[in-house]
Amino acid sequence: MKVIKKDGRIQEFDKEKIYGSLNNAVVGMDEEKFNESDIRVLVSDIVNKINSIRKDNDSTSSYEIRGIIADALIEDGFSDVLDIYLNN
């Protein structure tokens, strides 16, 4: 799958970038609230949602991915992580 970036560049989708973004957002956060296992589960959920939404299309946008990440964080009760994620 391709990702259309804000500046128009096109890159291959890489789920590890989602992992890295979430991991960077929670640096220093109490691991009892949000840990690596939580990140892996969220990334899996996010990738499944992207694939479900874009099943007949081979591209998405960084904007759409950001929105899906935000929705997943809210749905899973991590609104405090969402605030940090959106401000990074």
Describe the protein.
The chain has helices at residues 15-25, 36-53, 62-75, 79-86, and strands spanning 2-4, 10-12, 59-61. The chain has one domain (2-86). The protein is 58% helix and 10% strand. A hairpin with a 5-residue loop joins strand 1 (2-4) and strand 2. The chain has 88 residues and is mainly α.
Runs in which pLDDT lies below 50 for 5 or more consecutive residues are none
| Structural class by secondary-structure content | mainly alpha
- Total helices: the number is 4
Say how many strands there are: 3
Strand order of the largest sheet: 2-1-3
Tell me about the largest β-sheet.
Answer: 3 strands, mixed
The rounded Rg comes to 13 Å
What is the strand content?
5-15%
Helix content: 55-70%
Element order, helices and strands? EEHHEHH
Domains (count) = 1
Shape: globular
Overall pLDDT level: 91
- Termini gap: 25 Å
Which structural traits does this protein have?
single chain; 88 residues; mainly alpha; three-stranded mixed sheet; 4 helices; 3 strands; 58% helix; 10% strand; globular
Topology summary:
Layout lengths: L1 E3 L5 E3 L2 H11 L10 H18 L5 E3 H14 L3 H8 L2
Parallel strand pairs: 1-3
Antiparallel strand pairs: 1-2
Helix pairs in contact: 1-2, 1-4, 2-3, 3-4
What is this entry, summarized?
This protein has 88 residues and is mostly helical. The chain has one domain. The protein is 58% helix and 10% strand.
